[in-house]
Amino acid sequence: MYESDPQSRRRFLQHAGLGIVALSAAVPLRRACADASPQNAITPQAALDRLLAGNARYAANKFDPKDFSAGRAARAKAQHPIASILSCADSRVAPELMFDQAPGDLFVVRVAGNYLNPDALSSLEYGVGVLGTPLLMVLGHSNCGAVKATIQELQDPRPLPGHIWDITNAVRPGIENVVKAGGDNLLERAIEANAEYNAARLAAAQPIIAAAVKDGRARVVCAEYELASGKVRLLKS
After folding, report:
1. Do 32 and 44 fall into the same domain?
2. 76-108 pLDDT, tens per residue?
3. Is the same domain home to 208 and 224?
4. CA angle, residues 135, 177, 168, in degrees to nearest 5
5. Residues 218, 204: contact at Cβ < 8 Å?
6. 58 and 9 part of one domain
7. 173-232: per-residue pLDDT in tens?
């Protein structure tokens, strides 16, 4: 058998020793990485508390400082949002801002009138089933134009331009009874009813979201954003 010279043997042992040291240091590091939980490995209540705390900062104009470049490389590989939000497309409604959250924190679906349709549902199912968001929120807002247009269409039916009728047709089921009842603060009550109606539909959506809600892995809430104050108010859920 071939025997190496003493110098080569010493070099081999030195390199082997360094390798063992490096390996012993790497094992705890790999274990720590494996044990590190993603930010959305939290309870639905913890996710809701984080959103409400962020909204309080937003309303008080006391944002947490953010370095938007930090974590960009990690976000390119994966995302772990803490909440999925069905929000209105209104330009004054920006969930990441109103909840003072950073990129990668929220999975947002926006459509005028914040109503649940097949496209929105499939996206929200992806948020829960694939990304693991523990919280889902249907977010209405004050002075909603989509709800206002639906009230007008119910009270005085007239042709609407283009495909805008599709919006009022989708919002109608959630507010029709409120409009028929009439009374004071009709727009505000209709906005609340629309959010509550779609939150109930979302919580019962089979097969992914209803199962997650039943198992306690996810929770569905509804809320209203007040444009003037910047505050988010939880509604019945």
Report:
1. no
2. 999 999 999 999 999 999 999 999 999 999 999
3. yes
4. 70
5. no
6. no
7. 999 999 999 999 999 999 999 999 999 999 999 999 999 999 999 999 999 999 999 999
User: On the CB side of 5, how many CA atoms lie within 13 Å of its CA?
Assistant: 2
Angle subtended by helix axes 164-181 and 145-155, to nearest 10: 70
Tell me the two tokens of residue 125: 């199912």
Q: Judge if 29 and 130 occupy the same domain.
A: no
pTM: 0.83
How many residues appear in the chain? Answer: 237
Residue appearing with tokens 């974590």 = 71
Handedness of CA 125, 131, 133, 139 (dihedral sign): negative
Same domain, 63 and 125: yes
The one-letter code for the residue type at 207 is P
> What's the structural domain count of the chain?
2
Residue 130 tokens read as 């694939």
Same domain, 3 and 108: no
Q: If phi over 0 gives left and psi between -120 and 50 gives alpha, with beta otherwise, what is residue 137?
A: beta
Spatial distance between the Cα atoms of 141 and 187, rounded to a whole number of angstroms: 11
Q: Is the dihedral of CA 88, 93, 94, 97 positive or negative?
A: negative
- In this structure, is the dihedral angle defined by the CA atoms of residues 104, 110, 218 and 128, taken in order, positive or negative? negative
Shortest CA distance to 86 belongs to which of 126, 51, 52, 114? 114
Task: Please indicate, yes or no, whether residues 131 and 161 belong to a single structural domain of this protein.
Answer: yes
Q: Is 143 exposed, middle or buried (0-12, 13-18, 19+ CB in 10 A)?
A: middle
> What DSSP state is assigned to residue 103?
T
- Amino acid present at 171: V
Which CATH number covers residue 77?
3.40.1050.10
103 and 165 fall within a common domain: yes
